[in-house]
What we know:
Layout: H1 3-7, E1 9-19, E2 25-35, E3 39-43, H2 50-58, E4 65-69, H3 71-74, E5 81-84, H4 96-106, H5 111-124, H6 140-152, E6 158-162, H7 170-187, E7 190-195, H8 198-204, E8 207-212, E9 217-223, H9 232-235, H10 238-261
Parallel strand pairs: 3-7, 3-8, 5-6, 6-7
Antiparallel strand pairs: 1-2, 1-4, 8-9
Helix pairs in contact: 4-5, 4-6, 5-6, 8-10
Amino acid sequence: MSTLAAAAPTIALRxxxxxxxxxxxxxxxxxxxxxxxxxxxxxGPSGCGKSTVLRLVAGLDAATSGHLASPALSxxxxxxxxxxxxxxxxxxxxxxxxxxxxxxxxAGQSKTxxxxxxxxxxxxxxxxxxxxxxxxxxxxxxxxxxxxxxxxVTQPRVLLMDEPFAALDEITRQRLNADLxxxxxxxxxxxxxxTHSVFEAVFLSxxxxxxxxxxxRIVAEVIVDEPVPRTAEFRTSQRYAQICREVTRAxxxxxxxxxxxx
Length: 262
């Protein structure tokens, strides 16, 4: 277990089981922690329960058994946890400004009162000149930036991200990876990030948790002990390639075990 997580766990799972009414066991004995300012990725094959873990941490679903602690489950504030989905889920009829204002509006803040926070966040994600634009007028990367701005505008303690860059081209994805690390550092967040990409997980994370399927469980943990911010040079370094190979091997072992149990 990482000392980063052990020092100040913001998210903690202990022997968590999720069983559906059909009898399907989605998660079996899942245990891990995420520290207050730690970036952790969940990596694994489709159907291994990565998104289920996020839903439990977000309080959108309940575990069948085990212990689970997160701000979404223990705080009276709905602003402590933010969730970014693969689809930006923006309101198509609303401007960029109004989309980012939404969580503050739901918390009771008027548009005038929220304007400073919204504009500060739009500047942070590079959308200062697009506050009056509508989602249909934006590129895929800009729509995702809007979604992330909406998530961060409440200054959450925890950011949960479910494959947010999967549908983007590689250049846009790499640019947003670098920007995400900057946003994470400047906002002092605990981030739990779901991805299918070994390369993305290694570039972003301090730890990569590899999940196996049938039922979902943590089968390996890989520490990425490289300083941040991480640059384009890191992607071409021997150390990056070495860690990617280590994570890939763990993923191959998990997939092979799943095939044997099928």
